[in-house]
Amino acid sequence: MFKFRQKFQTVFIRFTHTNEVRVRFAPSPTGFLHLGGLRTALYNFLFAKSNDGKFILRIEDTDQTRIVDGALEQIQKDLNWAGIYINEGPRIGGLYGPYIQSQRLHLYKEQVNVLLENETAYRCFCTNRRLDLLRMEATRTGQIPKYDNRCRYLTKDDLQAKLNNKMQHCIRFKLIPGLQTFEDLIYGPITYDVALNEGDPVIYKSDGFPTYHFANVVDDHFMKISHVLRGVEWQVSTTKHIMMYRAFNWDPPIYGHLPLLMNSDGTKLSKRQGDIQIKHYRDNGILPQALNNLITHSGGGFDKDLERGLKPRIYTMDELANQFDIKKVNSHSGKVMSERLLEFNRFELERQIHSDIDLKVLVAKVQNIIREKFPDRQLPSCHKYSVSQCIVFIRAGIHYIGNFKNQY
Ligand code: GLU
Predict the structure, then answer these.
(1) Glutamyl/glutaminyl-tRNA synthetase class Ib catalytic domain: from which residue to which, for each copy (predicted)?
(2) Does residue 91 share a domain with residue 223?
(3) In this structure, is residue 336 part of a structural domain?
(4) Which residues of the chain have pLDDT under 70?
(5) How many CB atoms lie within 10 A of CB 353?
(6) Which residues have a Cβ under 8 Å from the Cβ of 390 and sit 6 or more positions away?
(7) Percent of residues, the chain, with pLDDT higher than 70
(8) 341 C-alpha vs ligand 1 centroid, how far in Å?
(9) Is the Cβ atom of 238 under 6 angstroms away from ligand 1?
(10) 357 C-alpha vs ligand 1 centroid, how far in Å?
(11) What's the domain count of the chain?
């Protein structure tokens, strides 16, 4: 175990001192971007920006049955709206593309063969019926339901006979039993015995698609990802991922898991709630930087204004990137103070009013709102100068841009 940690530390030093920081946001297009997803994307983006690194968008669509129409496009639009700019991704391309997993199937096939050849993976012919029976038996006897790794021990002859019979099969990875430790950038050392809790995982399905775990590892390696910052729900999978890196004889990236985001009353923030979708905030007049600041306030990684005796205000992306320190992300769940969102929105309007460039954009938006409200009237007061004067004059009572139309 010590050797393992020593090796890990060497990897850390290698990346932090010599290699380019390359991080990725890897959503599955199974729904639209929500607050939790935006937090992961934002922290990756700020980490890249603060280290002169690259932010990569990779779409993980290996589970074709769960794809939602339009999600891929919408995720990219939502990131763009939030001011999270992509250095490499499906639309913009890049040296290590394609950036959509379903377009990389040849690579996974090639790589799964490497593991079959070095015998760290094997073909599994167990039927769904057998797996169901195993599950039922485990439930009946109060055991952890897991695959019993039977096909790991097929003789060469058995294996050949099944292949000759063209029996449908998947490919599983051989888990190494025992405790494994890795250093989490946010949680510190994490020790876990994955084989105690899971059977050998499927890495390549009978439909010719890899599973998430395999594709994710292969892509992070080939896309030269230096740091993986992702939600804490993936932490239990990390020792398994590191085992796959070892099986390939690759160095793993550095992992950091971002704690859960909760509602301010401590209840779970669910992505099924339409009201945490980014689209919902946008449609309701919330400004991107207000939302980003709400997230950074909730998720840690920054010194708090109040603790520094400063008046709360909105920070731009550049300011956030300058202040961001991954070591300041706490390992306990972050509470999203949604009740402060309007206050943040007003701070953001105030910030825009004081920035010449942003004020111009704001004035144009308000002019549009007014024209939409009074389409058949020529309004002399809709002139740029009047609108800007009006915005400055009434700003104290305004939380949304949309409120301006009520003031005319
Ligand atoms: N596709 C995974 C997700 O939807 C990505 C997990 C990871 O970042 O490794 O969250």
Answers:
(1) 20-333
(2) yes
(3) no
(4) 1-18, 270-274, 305-310, 379-381, 393-398, 402-408
(5) 16
(6) 381, 404, 407, 408
(7) 88
(8) 27
(9) no
(10) 36
(11) 2
Residue nearest to atom 10 of ligand 1 (CA): 27
Q: Where are the beta strands (DSSP E) in 148-187?
A: 170-173, 180-184
Distance of CA 185 to the CA centre of its chain: 16
- Beta carbons within 8 Å of 347's beta carbon, 6+ residues apart: 290, 293, 312, 313, 314
Q: What is the pTM of this model?
A: 0.88
| DSSP secondary structure string for all residues of 265-329 | TS-B--TTSGGGBHHHHHHTT--HHHHHHHHHHHH-SS--TGGGTPPP----HHHHHHH--GGGS
CA of 126 to the centre of ligand 1 (A): 28
What CATH number is attached to the domain comprising 76? 3.40.50.620
In degrees, to the nearest 5, what angle opens at C-alpha 387 toward C-alphas 382 and 392?
165
Domain boundary among 235, 263, 291: 263
Please write the tens of the pLDDT for every residue from 310-369.
677 889 999 999 999 999 998 888 888 888 888 899 888 888 888 888 878 887 888 888
Any domain includes 7: no
Structural domain contains residue 378: yes
> How buried is 165 (Cβ within 10 angstroms: 0-12 exposed, 13-18 middle, 19+ buried)?
exposed
Determine the residue of 28, 55, 100 to mutate for testing ligand 1's pocket, defined as the one with the most ligand atoms within 8 A of the Cβ atom: 28
In this structure, what DSSP letter does residue 152 have?
G
Q: Tell me which of 243, 263, 283 is where a domain ends.
A: 263
Asked whether 61 lines ligand 1 (CB < 6 A), one says no
In a domain, 170, yes or no: no
Q: Other C-beta atoms within 10 Å of 64: how many? A: 9
Q: 23: domain range?
A: 12-98+217-263
Query: What residues form DSSP beta bridges with 25?
Result: 57
